[in-house]
Amino acid sequence: MTDLLREAEALLFREALLLDQGDYDAWLALFTPDTVFWMPAWRNESEQTEDPDRELSLIYYQGRSNLEDRVRRIRSGMSVASKVRLRVMHAISNVTIIAQSADSISVSSCFIVHLVDVRAGRTHAFFGRYEHELVRVGGEWRIARKVIRLLNDVVPTLLDVYSI
To answer: Is 25 helix (H, G, I), strand (E, B) or coil?
Structure first.
C-alpha cells in the first residue's frame, strides 16, 4: 500500500467518523472553500444525471459556505427533517486511487451507511460509491469535490449530508 493511498484512506475514514459523531465543525474543515458536494439523481435504471446545474440532483451544494448553511439548519432545530438526528454509521471500503498529480488525487471507494430513525423505530442502509477529489492545502489533504453515487435510491427516510 502506498503512502498516498494510506493518506487518502485516513481522510475518508476521518470524514466518516466525524459524520457519525455529528462533529460538523471538524467535518466542514475537511472541505476547500470552493468544494462541490453532489449526489446525482438517477435519470433512468442505468444512467445518472451528469450536470448538477441543469439536471435533477438528490443533494447539491457548491462551495463550503453552502454546506455551512446546511449545518446551521441541522443544528438550529428549524429543519423538521433533522429535528431528531438519525443515528448513523458509515463504513468505507475498496479505496482506490484513480488518478494523481503533484497536489491532487482522485479517489473511488464503496460505502454503506446504516441508519436508525428513532422517531419511526426503523433501520435503513444506503450504499453506493464515493468519488473524492482531494487537494493538498498547506500540507494537509482537503476535499475539493465529493460525489455520492447512491445505488439504492428508494429513500424510505430522509437524506441529509450526514446520512449518506
So the answer is: helix
Hey, what amino acid is at 38?
W
> CA angle 109-37-95, nearest 5°?
10
Give the max Cα distance, the chain. Answer: 48
Confirm whether pTM is higher than 0.90: yes
Residue 117's closest CA among 154, 148, 155? 155
Per-residue pLDDT tens for 10-43?
A: 999 999 999 999 999 999 999 999 999 999 999 9
**Could you give the domains of the chain?**
1-150 (3.10.450.50)
Contact 39, 148 (CB under 8 A): yes
Beta strand segments in 9-139, E: 31-40, 57-62, 87-100, 104-117, 122-137
